[in-house]
Amino acid sequence: MERIRLVCAICVAGLALAGCGSGDDGTPQATGTTHTETTTAAETTGETESTPTPEPRVTVRIVVRDGGPVGGLARPEVSRNDRVTLVVDADVAGDVHLHGYDLEGRVEPGSSARISFRATIPGRFEIELHAHPEIHVGELTVRP
Amino acid sequence: MIVLAHGIGGVRDLPVPESFFFSTAAVVLVVSFVLLGALWKRPLLERHADGRRLPRSLEAVLLSRALRIVLGTASVGLLVLAFVSAAFGTAIELLNFAPTFVYVVFWIGLPGLSVLLGDVWRVLSPWRAIADATAWVIARSGREPRALLDPPAGSGLYPAAAALFAFVALELAYQRPADPRVLAVAIALYTYWALGGMVIYGREAWTRQGEGFAVAFSLLARIAPFAARDGELVVRWPLTGLVGRERQPGTLVFIAVMLGSTSFDGFSRTTAWQDLLANVRLDLAGESQRTIDLVLTLVNALGLAAFVGAVVLTYLAAVVWAGRLVRPGRSLVPDFVFPLVPVAFAYLVAHYFSLFVIQGQFIVTLASDPLGRGWDLFGTADFAPNLTIVSPETVWYVQVVSLTLGHVAGLTVAHDRAVTLFENRSDALRSQYPMLALMVLYTVGGLWLLSRG
């Protein structure tokens, strides 16, 4: 339990920093576990493909404990063409699956899944953790 | 779809923005009142229901036995292909022909085709084709193909409604609707249902009362500008097939399954329902996957049934209210059921348009490799579907326009019915206030579901 609380505290702190990190339409991020931040281009995370005008880099962090995402279903939002890194930390082993984009990442206790991609398709996309039993993590919104 | 895991329906629509919601709702209200005031005083649709006969040469081709045999063979072939893929192909949903074929090409494509061209399912149904061929063989051997029993009196469309409910429950309530093996069982069971019913109750009776898809598509085909009647093909005003009152018990329940299932599909994507399911999952932590799936399926099935029930109850409330206003001396329940058909089709378009154009593209790849074995039968295995083929804005416009048109069509049919029923114009108008309220409820409610995050 202590660990969960700690993780939550980190997430909430991160949320405060994230505030206006994801675009200019002012939609606030609602869930406590979803942490969206814009890092500078100098910090190389995610894809290495280089383009003349780099799109914002967005990291979405989700923590899964005791059979579900901490703080309820995660509903992160990013903008189209953002370079997104989805980081899922869990206390079980399994495959994190992002629907639509059809990307998977392996997660183990102590080793997060990292899925990096450019958000080229607008829409809503389920995030699932294929473990035993399966866990519905949340859904990613890619705004047009 | 709620969970068509691994790619089927992976790209979901964004909620309709509030601005769209409010402006469309306002348009719907204004249009409704203008329609109510300005509409014709005498039945218009009924007068045009007969239509004009198509040229004989065209009729000869379209109703020919050769075409029937070609189409029937093709559709039986597709049924077999869907079953073989589902039963023996890859278990990966997106790489198997069956899920995309059944839920996208068939279940969204056929309603569209029926509304455009009429009751094409009569010649496209593989089950009907098998039954017709069997009857032909029996007749050739000198015996007369006969039904074993008459359908129970008063059974009406209830068997068909039960069949359709089973299908939408598989699609929307069950946790793994696109699992190929599950689909193989479903295809087999439905084939028994369709063929068994035709053997017992006769081809014609079961097509009209028990085969859920046949009933759904023939109801939607009433919207179409074409129809086949007594061996003749006619072109007519759209919607004229919906005049008159329903004559089969269970029509209301059947249409409620169509309308209620689509709206539940929308509701099941809302945060409220998703959170509820997530909580159920948490409560079941430690249970087996099987138990969790079972409970979630039951919760979804209850939600689905509640939406179907809500359609029936709101309709009955509106009709009882109309009866109080005009005192017709008999129940009006059968009279205003058909106006719900265009609304049901509009819901279908609004909810599944993007699935059809996005997921539908996968059938090009899947046709070349239906079992997911790495084949390339038609050289299309490398076709790359364009997942951004429609923008979210286009989807929103299609959604609000289809719901609005469905609303106008429904009101038009209801109005025509009212002026047929009541000679007194003020009675006709008064009977329409509750129908108007009902239609506004369905349309604005449908829009609201699409705008929920």
Give the strand content of chain A.
35-45%
**What CATH architecture of chain A would you give?**
Sandwich
The counted number of beta strands of chain A is: 10
Computed CA radius of gyration of chain B, to the nearest angstrom:
23 Å
Order of helices and strands of chain A: HEEEEEEEEEE
Task: Describe how the helices and strands are arranged.
The complex is a heterodimer of chains A (about 140) and B (about 450).
Chain A: H1 2-18, E1 35-39, E2 57-65, E3 68-69, E4 77-79, E5 83-90, E6 94-98, E7 103-107, E8 113-118, E9 123-130, E10 135-143
Parallel strand pairs in A: 2-5, 4-10
Antiparallel strand pairs in A: 1-2, 2-3, 5-8, 6-7, 6-9, 9-10
Chain B: H1 18-38, E1 52-53, H2 56-62, H3 65-88, H4 97-117, H5 121-124, H6 126-140, H7 158-172, H8 180-201, H9 203-209, H10 212-221, E2 226-229, E3 232-235, H11 251-267, H12 271-283, H13 289-326, H14 340-359, H15 362-368, H16 392-421, H17 425-451
Antiparallel strand pairs in B: 1-3, 2-3
Helix pairs in contact in B: 1-16, 1-17, 3-4, 3-6, 3-8, 4-10, 4-14, 4-15, 6-8, 7-10, 7-11, 8-9, 11-13, 11-14, 13-17, 14-16, 14-17, 16-17
Descriptive notes:
The complex is a heterodimer of chains A (144) and B (453). In chain A, 12% of the residues lie in helices and 42% in strands. Chain A contains one helix and ten strands, in the order αββββββββββ. In chain A, the strands form two sheets. In chain A, strands 1, 2, 3, 5 and 8 form a five-stranded mixed beta sheet that branches. Chain A is globular. Chain B is mainly alpha-helical. Chain B has one domain. Chain B contains 17 helices and three strands. Chain B has a three-stranded antiparallel beta sheet with strand order 1-3-2, with no helix packed on it. The two termini of chain B are 15 Å apart. At the A-B interface, β3, β9 and β10 of A face α12 of B.
